[in-house]
Design the sequence.
């Protein structure tokens, strides 16, 4: 175990069972992501949940790669993107319609629970796994049918006969800034239990673990005073949990000036000129809000690199 008890993915195994789990805690790194934007609370909360979801799903990647979770809806929160690399770099952003959102907030009291359909309308949640140039992209997709993002993704897993999986997500603005948490449990049903174990035992352990998971409170998933091991102990003290090395989560953006320049230079001169304001083309990264400005000199430099 490392010293870090926050901003991490903690893989674990329910002791002497085939029930595997992953716990995600996001604190200061999530707050850093949110500080780059100025989202109204309901939008920030949804995005924070999506980031925790990306982290908990991305940690299942077996190879180097990027997991992206994206939502699209016809409601106030039009789209959200969160991605995480296998070494724990995480980032995300949301796009929303201010007028639609203001309308929703006006017709509710502060603190009212706003469901996914209320905020996002009809749409879908998709995830993509990109493991490099020479590998296939795997995509899963599910309609935004549940009242929470966790319900939506749970719906996706319940359609799958490959794996039994349960997910919990929580996010909120606390005294210590934005925090989010996620926890999943999974088992491979066809394996049928521990080596040499009994199928009924395995089902019973799964059933019990799912009940423990459903007992976790949002506050517990978010509590900065309750570290990952402490929370796992609280949940699985009956069977015990074996923890593996955690993966550190860190806000990091992969936007890159030269890549952006490369895209701009595929435009014709006329198109490029049309994009110019005060003689320069500007582009702001949606994820980290960094502004890239390309004046003629810079464009000429990148053009020269292309040979
Ligand atoms: Zn960026």
Sequence:
């Amino acid at each position: 175990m490392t010293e870090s008890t926050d901003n991490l993915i903690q893989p674990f195994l329910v002791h002497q069972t085939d029930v595997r789990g992953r716990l995600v805690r996001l604190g200061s790194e999530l707050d850093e992501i949110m500080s780059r934007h100025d989202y109204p609370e309901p939008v920030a909360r949804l995005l924070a949940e999506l980031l925790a979801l990306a982290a908990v799903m991305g940690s299942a990647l077996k190879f180097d790669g990027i997991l992206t979770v994206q939502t699209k809806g016809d409601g106030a929160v039009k789209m959200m993107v969160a991605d995480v690399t296998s070494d724990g770099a995480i980032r995300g952003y949301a796009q929303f319609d201010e007028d639609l959102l203001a309308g929703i907030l006006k017709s509710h009291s502060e603190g009212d629970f706003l469901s996914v359909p209320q905020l996002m309308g009809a749409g879908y949640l998709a995830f993509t796994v990109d493991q490099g140039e020479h590998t296939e992209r795997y995509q899963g997709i599910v309609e935004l049918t549940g009242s929470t993002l966790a319900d939506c993704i749970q719906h996706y897993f319940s359609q799958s006969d490959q794996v039994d999986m349960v997910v919990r997500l929580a996010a909120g603005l606390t005294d210590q800034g934005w925090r989010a948490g996620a926890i999943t449990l999974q088992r491979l049903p066809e394996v049928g239990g521990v080596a040499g174990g009994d199928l009924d035992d395995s089902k019973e352990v799964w059933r019990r673990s799912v009940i423990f998971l459903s007992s976790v409170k949002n506050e517990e998933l978010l509590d900065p005073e309750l570290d990952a091991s402490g929370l796992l102990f609280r949940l699985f003290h009956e069977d015990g949990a074996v923890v593996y090395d955690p993966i550190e989560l860190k806000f990091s953006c992969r936007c890159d000036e030269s890549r952006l320049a490369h895209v701009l230079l595929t435009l014709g001169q006329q198109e490029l000129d049309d994009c110019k304001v005060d003689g320069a083309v500007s582009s702001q990264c949606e994820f980290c809000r960094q502004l890239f400005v390309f004046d003629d000199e810079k464009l000429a430099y990148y053009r020269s690199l292309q040979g």
User: Anything to note?
Assistant: The pocket of zinc ion is lined by residues 253, 255, 285, 287-288, 290 (CB under 6 Å). The radius of gyration is 22 Å.
